[in-house]
Amino acid sequence: MYKLFIRPLFFCFDPEKIHYFTFSLIRFFNKIPGFSKLFQALYEVKDKRLEREVFGIKFKNPVGLAAGFDKDAKLYNELSNLGFGFIEIGTLTPIGQEGNPKKRLFRLKEDNAIINRMGFNNGGVKEAVERLKQNKGVLIGGNIGKNKVTPNEEAVNDYEICFEALFPYVDYFVVNVSSPNTPNLRELQEKEPLKKLLQTLENNKLQTINHKPILLKIAPDLTDEQLLDIIDIVNETKIAGVIATNTTLSREGLQSENKSEVGGLSGKPLTKRSTEVIRFLSEKSNKSFPIIGVGGIHTAEDAIEKLEAGASLVQLYTGFIYEGPALIKAINKKILENS
């Protein structure tokens, strides 16, 4: 139904406007008595064999929603009714910011892809915290970044502000230094500044009271040498794991008319590269840390490939937009078939 009727209608409109319209629609239907249960009945797959314990957290199933979809924690309770095992909010910054000028989100229909240059648009971490206080048992990841105007030399302070504000309300953290849409942000992926940032968060006083997993989200555009550095950094800083991968700057093999738009590319063209990164990290590290696989998951088989390559969990974003919530159910059913 989604691919036959809803998606063709939605794809007639501006992607950013329809995103917010969809939020309103999901919120509206979830307020109608019985609809939350209906969504759960349609899309949830409940089975003990789907449960995963990763970095000390028990997930009811291994399929999550990637950061960027519910940036401001406005819809995580409702989205969880569609069968997700966990929801990652953000990227959040200390102070709310508009992000980059519009138009900044583009569908590449021929490629089953999206290009975005959103630029960490969000209402700020304090607003998100107020919404997270209404959590009804959803497992939440908190994806954190720096404000655009904050120079890289002071970036650690921004990450710490978000870390401390979110600490009581999220189950794990994701340090985002890999978005291509904030100027110079990816420079923080270099070994020394990245080690300093991660060690600062791991040594935060809150971690001594109730340690929470910290993950690093990396770009798919890193070289093998840089990926080996990532393995060293994870082992040296003792963070919990890695999310592989963020969006890519590559435009190789694209067919769509608007393929040259500036920004990060997500979706089907990223499937192969993100899986390669997962396999490389898993093999070269001797599976010494968990990996969440994300990038180009449009079918159940795509998800299985990432799990077999070494991912412990997977996340959806562009595949969720193109395929609809039935994809979550299909992945969980496929996992059960293979178990």
UniProtKB/TrEMBL annotation:
<feature type="binding site">
    <location>
        <begin position="317"/>
        <end position="318"/>
    </location>
    <ligand>
        <name>FMN</name>
    </ligand>
</feature>
<feature type="binding site">
    <location>
        <position position="176"/>
    </location>
    <ligand>
        <name>substrate</name>
    </ligand>
</feature>
<keyword id="KW-0560">Oxidoreductase</keyword>
<dbReference type="InterPro" id="IPR005719">
    <property type="entry name" value="Dihydroorotate_DH_2"/>
</dbReference>
<feature type="binding site">
    <location>
        <position position="267"/>
    </location>
    <ligand>
        <name>FMN</name>
    </ligand>
</feature>
<feature type="binding site">
    <location>
        <begin position="67"/>
        <end position="71"/>
    </location>
    <ligand>
        <name>FMN</name>
    </ligand>
</feature>
<feature type="binding site">
    <location>
        <position position="176"/>
    </location>
    <ligand>
        <name>FMN</name>
    </ligand>
</feature>
<dbReference type="InterPro" id="IPR012135">
    <property type="entry name" value="Dihydroorotate_DH_1_2"/>
</dbReference>
<dbReference type="InterPro" id="IPR001295">
    <property type="entry name" value="Dihydroorotate_DH_CS"/>
</dbReference>
<feature type="binding site">
    <location>
        <position position="245"/>
    </location>
    <ligand>
        <name>FMN</name>
    </ligand>
</feature>
<feature type="binding site">
    <location>
        <position position="296"/>
    </location>
    <ligand>
        <name>FMN</name>
    </ligand>
</feature>
<comment type="function">
    <text>Catalyzes the conversion of dihydroorotate to orotate with quinone as electron acceptor.</text>
</comment>
<protein>
    <recommendedName>
        <fullName>Dihydroorotate dehydrogenase (quinone)</fullName>
        <ecNumber>1.3.5.2</ecNumber>
    </recommendedName>
</protein>
<dbReference type="Pfam" id="PF01180">
    <property type="entry name" value="DHO_dh"/>
</dbReference>
<keyword id="KW-1003">Cell membrane</keyword>
<feature type="binding site">
    <location>
        <position position="71"/>
    </location>
    <ligand>
        <name>substrate</name>
    </ligand>
</feature>
<feature type="domain" description="Dihydroorotate dehydrogenase catalytic">
    <location>
        <begin position="50"/>
        <end position="336"/>
    </location>
</feature>
<feature type="binding site">
    <location>
        <position position="181"/>
    </location>
    <ligand>
        <name>substrate</name>
    </ligand>
</feature>
<keyword id="KW-0288">FMN</keyword>
<keyword id="KW-0472">Membrane</keyword>
<comment type="pathway">
    <text>Pyrimidine metabolism; UMP biosynthesis via de novo pathway; orotate from (S)-dihydroorotate (quinone route): step 1/1.</text>
</comment>
<keyword id="KW-0285">Flavoprotein</keyword>
<comment type="similarity">
    <text>Belongs to the dihydroorotate dehydrogenase family. Type 2 subfamily.</text>
</comment>
<feature type="binding site">
    <location>
        <position position="143"/>
    </location>
    <ligand>
        <name>FMN</name>
    </ligand>
</feature>
<feature type="binding site">
    <location>
        <position position="217"/>
    </location>
    <ligand>
        <name>FMN</name>
    </ligand>
</feature>
<keyword id="KW-0665">Pyrimidine biosynthesis</keyword>
<feature type="binding site">
    <location>
        <position position="91"/>
    </location>
    <ligand>
        <name>FMN</name>
    </ligand>
</feature>
<feature type="binding site">
    <location>
        <begin position="116"/>
        <end position="120"/>
    </location>
    <ligand>
        <name>substrate</name>
    </ligand>
</feature>
<dbReference type="InterPro" id="IPR013785">
    <property type="entry name" value="Aldolase_TIM"/>
</dbReference>
<feature type="binding site">
    <location>
        <begin position="246"/>
        <end position="247"/>
    </location>
    <ligand>
        <name>substrate</name>
    </ligand>
</feature>
<dbReference type="InterPro" id="IPR050074">
    <property type="entry name" value="DHO_dehydrogenase"/>
</dbReference>
<dbReference type="InterPro" id="IPR005720">
    <property type="entry name" value="Dihydroorotate_DH_cat"/>
</dbReference>
<dbReference type="GO" id="GO:0106430">
    <property type="term" value="F:dihydroorotate dehydrogenase (quinone) activity"/>
</dbReference>
<feature type="active site" description="Nucleophile">
    <location>
        <position position="179"/>
    </location>
</feature>
<comment type="subunit">
    <text>Monomer.</text>
</comment>
